[in-house]
Write a structure and sequence with these properties.
mainly beta; four-stranded antiparallel beta sheet; 1 helix; 11% helix
């Protein structure tokens, strides 16, 4: 089972157990995060594509840490002028715990109600 999620205007393909680096999230290390912008879910039953998101689907993840990416060098030059700049993008590292779909949510509600 895998899902396509959106975080920080970027899309990521995730499965349970994956570790991804997304744009910085204001969450402390070790806390759980719920990503609700799920664009597509694929499992044994087939593929579900959202319009624009899949209703009732969410991805649960744990924040492993924050960091800064590899330095990107920007070199600008003109006649008699040179400028070298560097940039490091901040990121949050997430461990994907589970992918929850609407069907699983309905089953859990029925079990809790019975």
């Amino acid at each position: 089972m895998y899902a396509i999620i959106e975080s920080g205007s970027k899309q990521y393909r995730v499965s349970e157990g994956d570790v991804i680096e997304v744009e910085t999230l204001p969450v402390e290390e070790g806390k759980k995060v719920e990503l609700e912008r799920v664009l597509m879910v694929a499992d044994d039953g087939g593929i579900t594509v959202g319009k624009p998101t899949v209703e009732g689907a969410k991805v649960m993840a744990t924040v492993q840490g924050h960091g800064r990416g590899k330095k990107i060098i920007v070199y600008k030059h003109k006649k008699n002028y040179h400028r070298k700049q560097g940039h490091r993008q901040n990121f949050t590292r997430l461990q994907i715990d589970e992918i929850v779909t609407q069907v699983e949510t309905e089953v859990e509600e029925q079990e809790n109600g019975a």
